[in-house]
Write the structure tokens for this entry.
Amino acid sequence: MSASIEEDLIHTFNGITFTTRSSLELLRSLATFEARDDDVLLVSYPKSGTHWLAEIIMLLHPSKVAITSPMEFGDLSKLEQLDHLSCKRIIPTHLDRNMLPPAFKLKQCKVIYLLRNPKDIAVSMYHYYRENPNLPTIDNWSAFCEMFLKGDVVCGSWFDHVLSWEENATDKSTLFLFYEDMKKDLPNVVKEVSAFLGADASEGEINEICAKSSFSEMKTNTEKENDNPNQTVCALTSNRRLVFRKGAVGDWKNHFTPKQNRMFEEVFAEKMKSSKVAKHIVYEF
Ligand code: A3P
């Protein structure tokens, strides 16, 4: 891909790479965004299972809340659009916490932070880069793995993202969830989310939500829908159909060479040595 086309796809703000679908004007004006006391942030690094969790939250709250598109996705009109919503807002974002509008911090809005093991994220993101016309061309897995470790990908470094959110988390207002726990015991995670959001779902409702949010159900439904690229909970998504790839834990083993795995482990150990949440991360069952 020529440099000029690549420049049309991505740009940098505050040292972090964004797709040009997040306009610089919007990114600059986030600082002035007004939060509401009952806003809930759905925070994740891309490819952590954001669409899955958003589906669960939607099923927990039929019609009482709006799950918006990510606050950093779009142009300047975005802030006004979000401002006009009269119902309770669940706002997804891939932003590093340092870039979060200060009003959310001041109001101590609830945050759900979704984590996934970074090896599977790297693999998922690699395939996503290959399929998504809004992202630059990648030569091969080996080149992407290096870019990921350096944080030279959209939304910046996974390591810095997790650390930025963990360092400032308060027990009361932040719920950490793990993709792998969702795969292992979804009813329990749905129960936790229900309690955190005050949704009060019954056991029967929880079982129904688990069935409706299964990978196969979501994939089939998305293939049947008329796709609206603006109805997205991820700032990189041009097409929801690209999201539902494998939905598995441990696909990294089909991609990583022993040397790449060693390199990854070294960077992880160094970067995440102070992290408590990193200790909960599992790479396989
Ligand atoms: P893979 O590419 O490994 O398959 P996000 O929504 O944050 O973009 O994350 C996308 C990843 O979540 C993809 O991972 C996708 O398959 C997985 N995913 C989406 N819905 C899922 C579901 N219902 N169950 C399990 N995994 C799901």
The chain has a mean pLDDT of 94.
